[in-house]
Structure formats: C-alpha cells, structure tokens
C-alpha cells in the first residue's frame, strides 16, 4: 500500500516537473542538489558526466567561446534575441572556476535596468520573458560567480519576476473586463407572431399600445380618408429587436 502511494506521488512529481519552463526546472534542480549529501552529489556528478560526454564533441567549439572573456565581451546587446540565445549557451557551458568569464557576463547582465527603462524592452513577450528568467536563474545559481555577484543577480531576477507578474495581472484584468462586457453585447434577433402574442399576455402596456392603434384606425375610417396600414399585421412578420444576451426578459419594464 505504501509502495503504491509512493509510486503515485513520484509519477505526480514527474508530471509536475515536465510542465515547468526551463527557468523553473533549473531552480528546482539546484534546490534538490542543495539537499543532497556529498556522496549523493559525487554519484550524481558521475551520472551527469556520462550524459554530458555524449555531446562533448558537438559542443566543443561553443564551450571554448563560452570560456573566453574576449568572445563574451562582444555579447553585450541583450535586446537582441540572438545575443540572448548565445548568452544562455555560454552560461550552460561556462566552467565552474572561470571567474574572469563570469565577471564579463556579470557586467553584461547587470545592465538590465537601463535596457528596460531606456529601450522599453517588453518582457511580457512570452519568449523574451522566458529568456531573461532563464538567464538570471542560471547566473544566480552558477558556481563561477561570487557570492556578491549571485546576490545582485538574484535581485535582478526578483525584479524581472515582479515585472512579469504585474504584466500578467494587467492582461488578466483586461481579459476579465472583456468577459464582463461581452454578455451585455446587443445582438439582433427576431420575434415571430406566437412569441409576440405570448409576451403580450399579462403585459398591460402592450395591450394599451394595441388599443391606441385600433382607436387611431377607427378615427381614420370615420373621417373617410384612406385607411392606415393595419398595425397589428406587423405581429405576423418577424420584427427585429435588440435583446441582451445572458439577461432574462423583464417584460414591460423598459
């Protein structure tokens, strides 16, 4: 029984992890590593080393550039989507003891305030927001950065998360406002004679209107002029009226 329960919980964790974005995955995995004891870390390191060896040759050139401060100094325009992609690759392939390269990346990433304020970078764009979240999540957890650098990068990450939360809140508020207005949208519909007659039952104002129309016809006939078109014949045709979707009819309260 306990084994089945653990299996269900494990499958739930796997499913939950599979729907996370890259930044959330990296943050969660780093948190798990902090909970591991040294022997567990050495074992996991061996497993990771074996998995990483499969792509060693294909990533060799990119790894050399990622650990070269001169190459990293050219990746300063973080408003460019291509530059951000290269920075992500550089952070992934950066050696854990390369302080010089980490310093170059740190100076590039700490310009995020001026970039957002001066260039009006829209973080609410799905891809842009995810890239910045992943950049600062990886940098704030990377061992190549000093403790002080990680603190600054963590503050920048918190600022980006707050901007995204405010933006998402505004979008949800706008969507809610549209959903509130949509039921009150007037659409034309048609009422046939049976519907009109049934709506007149128990409605004194409707009877008064018909009585006035009949009286007007009698006056016209008494004068001897040409008879007016019979108004009640309109009830046999389909009359366009305005109704509000989602609201019940209020009868005569117009």
UniProtKB/TrEMBL annotation:
Query: Which superkingdom is the protein from?
Result: Eukaryota
Q: Using the record's annotation, list all stretches that form the SMAUG/ZCCHC2-like PHAT domain.
A: 59-163
Q: Which Pfam families match?
A: PHAT_SMAUG (PF26034), Vts1 (PF25479)
Matching entries from InterPro entries are given as: PHAT_Smg/ZCCHC2-like, Vts1_dom, ZCCHC14
The organism's taxonomy opens as: Eukaryota, Metazoa, Chordata, Craniata, Vertebrata
Q: Which species is this UniProt entry from? A: Oncorhynchus kisutch (Coho salmon)
Task: Tell me the ranges covered by the RNA-binding protein vts1-like alpha-helical domain, including all copies.
Answer: 11-54
Q: What is this protein called?
A: Zinc finger CCHC-type containing 14
């Amino acid at each position: 029984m306990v084994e089945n329960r653990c299996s269900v919980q494990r499958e739930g964790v796997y499913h939950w992890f599979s729907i996370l974005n890259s930044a959330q995955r990296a943050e969660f995995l780093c948190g798990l590593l902090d909970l591991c004891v040294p022997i567990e870390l050495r074992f996991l390191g061996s497993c990771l080393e074996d998995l990483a060896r499969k792509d060693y040759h294909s990533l060799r050139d990119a790894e050399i550039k990622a650990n070269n401060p001169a190459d990293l100094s050219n990746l300063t325009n973080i408003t460019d989507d291509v530059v951000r992609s290269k920075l992500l690759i550089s952070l992934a392939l950066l050696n854990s003891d390369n302080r010089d390269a980490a310093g170059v990346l740190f100076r590039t990433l700490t310009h995020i305030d001026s970039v957002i304020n001066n260039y009006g970078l829209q973080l609410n764009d799905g891809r842009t927001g995810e890239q910045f979240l992943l950049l600062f999540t990886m940098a704030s957890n990377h061992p190549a950065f000093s403790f002080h650098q990680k603190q600054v990068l963590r503050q920048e990450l918190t600022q980006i998360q707050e901007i995204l939360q405010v933006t998402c809140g505004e979008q949800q508020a706008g969507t809610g406002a549209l959903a509130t207005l949509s039921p009150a949208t007037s659409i034309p519909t048609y009422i046939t004679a049976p519907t009109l007659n049934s709506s007149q039952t128990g409605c004194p104002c409707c009877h008064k209107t018909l009585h006035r129309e009949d009286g007007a016809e009698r006056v016209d006939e008494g004068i001897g002029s040409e008879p007016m078109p019979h108004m009640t014949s309109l009830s046999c045709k389909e009359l366009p009226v305005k109704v509000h979707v989602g609201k019940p009819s209020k009868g005569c309260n117009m």
